[in-house]
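From: lab user (bench 3)
To: helpdesk
Subject: output format question, protein + acetyl coenzyme *A

Hello, I'm new to running complex predictions and I'm not sure whether the block I got back is the full result or only part of it. Here's what I submitted:
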Amino acid sequence: MSQTALINLDGKSFELPTFEGTENEKAIDIAKLRDLSGFVTYDPGYKNTGATKSAITYLDGEEGILRYRGYSIEELADQSTFIEVAYLLIHGELPTVAELANFEKQIQSYTVVNEELLAIANAFPASTHPMCVLAAVVGAMSAFHSTDEAGDDEENILCLLATLPVMATWHYKKSLGEAVNQVDKSLDYCSSFLQMMFGKKGDAYLADPIVAKALNKLLILHADHEQNCSTSTVRLVGSSHANLFASISAGINALWGPLHGGANQEVIEMLEAIKADGGDTAKYVTMAKDKNSGFRLMGFGHRVYKNFDPRAKIIKVAADDVLKALGVNDPVLSIAQHLEDAALHDDYFVARKLYPNVDFYSGIIYRALGIPTNMFTVMFAIGRLPGWIAQWKELRTNKEPIGRPRQIYTGATLRSFVAISER
Ligand code: ACO
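Helpdesk reply: Thanks, we reran it on our side. This is the complete output you should expect:
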């Protein structure tokens, strides 16, 4: 049933069309509101603004539902591989056996990174934050690939999927002063990443299957999350027809922030700070409730999930499995457990629906796997890459217009310029 929205402004009534998505999400199309009435809508942080129509990811924050292309995150995390999910997100359908094998082979064929690109990565001091290196290198990939309108998007996509893990491990090995491992093309994506990361050059190294499985799950859970900060950035940059590499590089920078992907690093840093301060979690819960303290519990709260984060539910089980299997006994992890218990039973957190999010547990798993804290957000970027690519592709395929929000100007009204000599 089609409805219209009636809006009364300055004594006049305006009718605006509405529409529904396939999961019955309702929207008012306000595109013509300004032309009709002179009013724009105001929605800082886009908390209630649908910026696009998208067929990639469905998320219901109230019900804790997350689906990629219609498939539930629970089924995908349990039964799929990260590369299969990447194919699904980017191409819209699950691959056949032959399509998946071909996709994997093609990605592997791009793992030999251009020497000049490696030279760019090498120019950064070893102490540089890996997100800075990743964003810069991905941006620089524009220089080595055809990116004009006639360019081969498919080739660039495969190249990006292959390059991110190589560049991430390259910088890590450099920071340790160690030689970089060759990619072992007989390994799957996650085992190959772990081999590049933890294997010593020349030595045979095979990742623990439990670890590779947990990593596979983590990457799947991060693969897309509809119009979040970094994805919206990718789409906004892409909407100016900036190329894939430039758009993804912008997304990596957006992800870096502590309120977004940077939260997983901040979680562990916060837990370590609590430990160093005597491990009094109650003190930190009190501080998080005090608006003047400027302190927030990192890894708690989410813009859209207001009951629970379905990814956190899956990852909590995986975290428990990994810790048990690896026999990890880390005091920081018991602080995490206390903090979680304290916050989940505290009125402030309950009233505001602040639950542990995916970053709370992903930081814990990455730490148990031996991934350095400053690489946690890089792991998130590797996971989110297929989603960014799919969203960029959708934007271009749908020929969406350039993104250009409005504003409500609140600055000075017209005033006369005063010459410097008279000030
Ligand atoms: N600790 C303490 N209080 C919090 C927290 C927190 N982690 N998160 C929100 N609040 C409080 C706010 O102070 C506010 O209180 P008020 O209503 O009394 O003013 C209320 O909860 C709502 O907070 P908002 O900031 O308005 O919520 P918003 O939806 O804009 O922000 C966000 C969501 C950014 C994730 C926020 O919860 C936060 O900063 N969390 C910590 C950082 C984090 O874990 N980020 C990762 C997000 S998940 C991801 O990117 C994959």
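A quick orientation on your result: The chain has 18 helices and six strands. Let us know if anything else is unclear.
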